[in-house]
């Protein structure tokens, strides 16, 4: 499987990036080709619904999202929602998310924002018919220390999410590749 993990925090000491890196390792452990995109390294214009779509990084990211069998988004939680860089990424890459399998990771300060990944999941589901994996990984500031992910429970959840990304993507590919299902292909293989 060809998997993509996008870290959406612009913070130099990002916990989202720690989780994203760990997820990449877990996906590689299950044998998947996995690429990490860190938005700190990719400058994206703010979406203006117009000429900003012509930016070359928009085309580059859209192509990676479209080519992946599943995509994970690791995002900071700001004001009970995901940070603006993640929202801007979705606005800029729009239809490349069509029917994608998506895993969601959130880096937060405390425990009370645990529902904050729902709105972005809803909009990906409603706008682009994404399959949102029902295994969110939500880490608080206690989960990280000295630039490392130190919470064993979060590490375990990242391993499980990697397993789910692999499993869902493989099952759909198997289904779509089967001649019996040629008239009823679903999601990623149906385009
Ligand atoms: C502007 C701003 C708003 C924040 N809002 C919340 C919030 O609503 N809930 C929460 O738990 N943490 C909040 N935090 C804390 C961040 O979620 C936390 O610092 C997290 O580590 C950010 O992810 P990152 O390290 O990947 O950048 C906020 C931080 C900032 C800078």
From TrEMBL:
Instruction: Give one GO molecular function term.
Output: oxidoreductase activity
Domain NADPH-dependent FMN reductase-like: start-end pairs: 1-116
Q: One Pfam family, please name it.
A: FMN_red
Question: Which major enzyme category is it?
Answer: oxidoreductase
Q: Which UniProt keywords apply?
A: Flavoprotein, FMN, Oxidoreductase
Q: Which InterPro entries match?
A: Flavoprotein-like_sf (IPR029039), FMN_Rdtase-like_dom (IPR005025), NAD(P)H-dep_FMN_reductase (IPR051814)
Please indicate which superkingdom the organism of origin belongs to.
Bacteria
Which EC number(s) does the record attach to this protein?
Answer: 1.5.1.45
Q: Which family does it belong to?
A: Belongs to the SsuE family.
Q: Which PANTHER family match?
A: FMN REDUCTASE (NADPH)
**Name of the protein in question:** NAD(P)H-dependent FAD/FMN reductase
